[in-house]
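Forum: Protein Structure Q&A
Topic: Joint prediction for protein chains with partners

I've read a bunch of threads here and the consensus seems to be that you should model interacting components together rather than docking separate models afterwards. I'd like to see that in practice. Below is the full input, 801 residues plus whatever partners are listed. Could one of the regulars post the assembled result?
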Amino acid sequence: MTDILRTIDLSKRFRKTVVLDHLNMIVPEHGVYGLVGPNGAGKTTTIKILMNARQPTEGMAQVFGRDSRRLSPEDFTQIGYVSENQQMPEWMTVEYFMNYLKPFYPDWDAGRAQELLRQFELPPDRKIRNLSHGMRMKAALASSLAYRPRLIVLDEPFTGLDALVRDELIEGVLECSDGATILISSHDLSEVESFASHIGYLDRGRLQFSEEMTSLVDRFREIEITLTNSSPSPISWPAAWLNTEQSAAVVRFVDTQFDQERTMAEVQRLFGNTHHISVNRMPLRAIFVTLAKAGRKAA
Amino acid sequence: MRQALHIFKKDVRHLWFEVAVAITVVAAFTFTGARRALWLADPVTNRIAAWTLVMILLPLAWWTLIARVIHDEVLPGDNQFWITRPYSWKSLLGAKALFILAFISIPMLLADGVIVRAHGLHPLGAELPGLLWSQVLLAIVFVLPIAALSALTTGFVQLIFAILTPCVIALGVAIVAPEVVLTGFLGASDWVKMYYVFLVISVAASAILFWQYSVRRTSAARSLAVAAGILAVLGMTLIPWSAAFRIQSWLSKQRVDQPMAHVDFDSGNKWLTRAVIERGDRVRVEVPLSITGLPPGMLAKPEGFSVQLQAPDGRMSYADQLPLKYASNMGQEFSLQVTVDGAFYRRVKNEPMKVRGSLYMTLFGNRQTVRVPFGDRSVPVSRVGVCSASGGGNLQSYFLICSSAFRFPPVLVSYRFIQSAKEAVEDVWPSTQPRRVISYSPLPAELGISPVSQDFTFSTVRVPLSEGRVDTVEPIAHIRRNFEIENLRLGDFEVRPAPVSP
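Posted by a regular:
Agreed with the consensus. Here's the joint model:
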């Protein structure tokens, strides 16, 4: 896989506020990359810089191997971008909006555009200003999928949508992506978890990790140990263990680098004999909460 | 080009109502402007109100249209749908330029042509350079600044704020320091400062538009707009009129033999010398001067002066490059007026002063007279435009009206009515002073929405008049002459204002 999106030491400051701090992120081609993180982590700023809507303070963002500041109209014919708070041409009807965009894209597929309107149940003659938020997002998405973009960028696309509309959108994206690279940002992991192949976790402008979804889910485990005797807390916990808690005979923590043999050996070293060890896989949401809590504690 | 046309079509579809309003206002402008040509035949009818209303509505309609079309693809911000679409900035800018050309510039070009023609002038002949240049000036002053401000704002509220802020600041300056505003006008040489402002506006507005459309750096572009505004205002207030005069002098078509004209103390009118005690411990010194040595048929018009009052002990008061408004003009004899500090005056008033200075003046010559018979026929008057005369009958009121296209005449114009019933020709309304506004601008048009400027005179004498006459003299050269007056004792001419009764 080649890198279709890449940031190199990307920093962004608004006066004294650091929004992005030397961000290095790679989105491989044909992947579905979920950029997650709490509100204010810098997800939208990263995407805006990638789309050349904002300028970096330092470093560089690359799209298709090209500096995002040099993105040409031809590059944008291969990019579909949908954002939660995108300003749309309110006066246009849905049909006029689609017809207006058509000549901008050499690969515009009129049949597919019609199919998308049908699939999303968009009323062609209704003005965009009269659409609900969900319908507007559908219209934006339909207009971004009709030309089979190589890269689809979705910035918090599901915020404020009900579950049904959200599922329709996800379904639409997956059905029509045709192997396109997808970058989706969200603060709600459950919506990304179902289809992301890669995940990047951004917190306070720094990328905490970026890896394949499967490896992420494999390395995070919630572990609960019941000790045979109460023992004092270790002087120092392993760096990979987060949210460590210890009561009289029970120890709980999240191992961020879980490996059956290594983790058990570490437990044995720190606590000696144990009565019971429970190892549980974690949903992405729980991983996210753990990381957010640990981040706050560190801050 | 294809994309520009596509965006243009979208704009037309979206803004058809605004376009219709703008075109309607231009049509009303054309109609009322052309009807003004009939003023002479029907001088009683008052069309000023309709004309004034149209003149106000026209720029408002343009500005609305410009703002709406540019705000259709808002430039500041990062949430607009179009910035992540394959828009070429050149196509977008081209579409907006095409829209403005199609619905503002071309209609105005046609309207001006129709109005000028209705006045008996020739928009495709002698007036063609003026017609084209006036469109350039309208674009620089009425289109470019609003287009640039629209490119820096996200909507109407921001735009109005951006327009009103400098207006409020200017109003504040005019109230607090009116002299700053008043010293900004140079009369017939105003065009020099105006073109400086036009240059600043056109360069800054073009740079802002180019910058915003190509890279959308709004903060930097806004700073540029503020800097350009400051630069324009500073230029208007700080460029000395003598600099404008020097440019004017450099552009003079003819060089005049320097020793020919002299400026001297007007000893025959010595009684006009005054030292008037004024409020605020200031003294207004008035010194009569006369211009001599001019060739026959040549007229001098003082434009400004610099003067230095020097006491025997070397103390001095200096007034530099004051414009003519401080001098009372009486043809070739006139009086300089200089205000000096009261303390300086008291120290030197009984001492013989030396007054030295320079007078800046324009020499006029090549007098021409054109007869304008009463009737419907317009008579062309070189470098003025066309003139017609009407009247007589029972009302015994006579009118003489001259229309000029796109600019004030570059010559001094005066009007007369002639009575020849008793065989001897007599001026009934002799104009000893030229009465029409003059501009020394060498360019074929001046800034103005109305393409035709009119001037008229009338007489209601109870004798039959035979014709009107239009006299013109043209500026030949703009020159400076030094003068020196010895042994002027100001105290001898002291005048105290009469006390005001409570």
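Chain A touches chain B at residues 48, 51-55, 73-77, 79, 81, 83, 85-89, 91, 100-101, 103-105, 140, 153 (CB under 8 Å).
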